[in-house]
User: What shape does this take?
Amino acid sequence: MCLYCGQEATMKKVLMLGTGGTIASEVTPSGLAPALTSAELLRCVPEISSLCSVTCEELFSIDSTNVTPAHWLTIARAIRAHYEEYDGFVIAHGTDTMAYTAAALSYLIQYSPKPIILTGAQKPIVFENTDSKTNLADAFRCAVSDLRGVMIVFNGRVILGTRARKTRTVSLQAFSSINYPELAVLQNGFLMEYIRPSALPAPVFYDKLGERVALMKMIPGADCGMLSYLLEHNDAVIIESFGVGGLPSYQGSGFERVLREAMEAENTI
Ligand code: ASP
Assistant: This one.
């Protein structure tokens, strides 16, 4: 019951998609392995039931090291299929490639007026000192909020899906927002919003991804032969160069020649 208008408050509806990761892992003889379903995760965080009504769907149960673009499409399709039925979406995901999934979903589902939240944990939910419960509860708080678009919610930070990077392997503060402020922070269950990304009344969905895209990270002394190889075997190459785009141009480095030849051959650069 709403204290101000006296009307029955309707609970928001959230779809939780399970994909595996440490958050859902158990200890096995060969190390941690995803085992728990989303419903089992939710049972460990009873406070979520007072925030919203949740429906769970298991998409896959894998270590995110094994996530491929096909998995990104599976997640995007599930959200698209149920978009009208829910007010928000929570995806439980491994941390190692969560930033890639967040970026991919940001392009597959653009201008979403509803929140699409990815979260995970550094320690499984079955561990005593786990960060899973806080991250999961925070993810649902964001999923019922006025935030919109694809985001990562982790360790009290809300990071835009296109800006997140896993910057720490062990620390609970695993993700950073690169060259962009955090959208919001959560403290003791309270959400403080700073930035609300733009949205349209309905999202724009895409259902195809070009998979022949390579990334070359430039290091001092890099061999231009690697760039030639990547250009030959891909439709597009992204060069993570120095500073604002610097490439070696010293005598014999070869990068300018390789790029000129590729442009003349009308390759994508
Ligand atoms: N290797 C795990 C994964 O990315 C790590 C994690 O979930 O945090 O699925």
